[in-house]
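User: Fold both of these, please.

Assistant: Here is the first one.
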Amino acid sequence: MSLGAGFTRAFREELARVEDRQPCCRMAAAAGLVHTAGTFLIRGGAGEDDRYEIRVATTVQGAAKMAYSQFKAFGAEGDLMTRREPRLHQRLVYEVHIKGTPAALQALNEMGALSDSFELDLGISRRLVRKNCCRNAFVRGCLIGAGSANSPQREAHLEIVTSNQAFAADLAKLLDDMRFHPGVRVRRGSHVVYLKGRDEVAGLLGLAGAHEAALQLEEQAVVKEVRSRANRLANCDAANMRRTGAAASRQLEAIEALERSGRLASLPAALREMADLRVRHPYLSLSELAEAGGEGLTRSAVNHRLRRLVEAAERTGKKGARDRIHGPRMARSRQ
């Protein structure tokens, strides 16, 4: 198990609780589980029943019972047992041990793991996945046996890991036929079939029967979008506040410059009133200034009058600069 261990365990257990009504779907689900979590052992025993053994190992109790029941349906004999792994927090593993009787080999043949000549078939038998319901069931078995996914809080990513290249290629083709967009890569000697994106991962889990897990992904996507929108609005508000503060600072400096030069008293009454309003309310936005100014004053009028005050201050500054430059030259010319 990898990626989001808790979420992976949850959707595997949810998938193992799905009950298939059709025998063909039960066979397909068991086949997917055997292909991804099963081992075929050649023991070399003297007796026919001791020559081969099939083992299926899983951390999901329901999955072990499903595999055991499917083999028993063919009359195969075996045992269902448990063990603790020495690593990975001593997690409990459920193992199905099936004796290699003709009945067991026949079951493997029906699951597409053995060919009609009783040779190992490492691909996916097309007869198992002809119908859509059987495709979903087969993928469910694969997800239970070797599927893992990121937790819903992270970027959506799902993997099915297999040691066999032919099976990985067939599984990717099957997912493509189901209108998904799988990728395949090799990682530490294993072949990984993966899906990326919330729609892809939630869609596959939903088709396989893990509706609660798919809903968790959808809900988390909504939470992420709400948070992202809130952050965008907060950033926008902060930027607006910075712009409003910078503009108010320029306006206050302009009003102060007009007062120092004595030009403020000569400006129209509307501009003098706006200057007084801005000085009394240095932190208000244009809309808030319009409200503070009383009935009949609009945001556009406030913006226009403040802009005229700034322009008047700029003209005053330019005129003062010209006077400072040309004044001494004129004085020298009179001497």
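And the second sequence with its predicted structure:
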Amino acid sequence: MNKIKAFIKPIAGLLAVGLLIYFFPDIFLYFTIAIVLSMLGRPLCELIKKFHIKKFHLGDSLSAVVTMFAMFLIFSLIFLIIIPLVNKEILILSKIDTKAIVDYFEQPLKDIYDFLIQYNIIRPEEDILKMIEGKLYSIVNWDNFSSILESFVSKTSSLVVGAFSTIFLTFFLLQDPKIVHNIFMAITPDEQTSRMNNILHDSRVMLTRYLFGLLSEVLCMMILIFLGLTVFGIENALIIAVIGGLMNIIPYLGPLMGCIVGVIIGIISNLGIGTYGMILPNTLEIIGVFVAANLIDNFILQPTIYSKSVFAHPIEIFLVILMAGNIGGVVGMIIAIPSYTLIRIIARQLLSEFKFIE
């Protein structure tokens, strides 16, 4: 009977988790985000618990509250920096004079037009200037931004629910770090409890180190890009640096996406202030800064961070990210390294008798 119970216990637990993910993916997402936030806040929470004045010290609940308040201040500071910059870009975009742009580029566009007609790419009756002007107007038309804002407002209620749920879960995970541990132990057969304890401990340590390493990499990339753009006198260097650094969370594709967004912001800034002649030089400068920053990232930051945080060889990481990208796209690439880290930890505990498992 005990053997049957030990066999059914983990299967029932895994089935329950699978059903939760399938029927309530939002709840699973909130819980996952809460786990990540609790990992980031755990060192601070533990430090606050150690602080005391004579016999007075903060308990688990107050330590969790103070930690969450500190995290809230950090996120609020980030938004206070980003939102005015985004608002500035929107205002610049809304003031772009499409007629002036077309007038300035009339001769180059005419040369392109003649080339396209010569090689039968477009028909002679098509007016490329009108077509381009129409496309520009549709891009910078304020009505497009209005529809985006309306769509955002319509989803605000679900965002509020998600934010509240995540905050609620994060608080209790900080207050009682053994919640996740107890959930896994509840579905673990008794004879495997020691191995599960090792898996959970190693996973928490490795993932926490990886998260802090990733944050360090993102922050370093923001600083490198910002300094490079500032040297060249690029407008809106801060917002380009913030976006470029955040995009770096996506391995390999992220830097390219960040560079494209940076170039677009640079072009918009030039179009907004009418410095059309600086579009090409500034574009080349932005691309050069991103290339230089990512060379530093690829050859110095990533090998150092990943080798010390997850103890994996750069070639190993590269292959894992490529395979994850083929399976799950961008999302797969983002979760590739932490997922692979968990798989390695589990394999070491359960398949340690095999030589290729280290």
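Strands lie at 52-53, 56-57.
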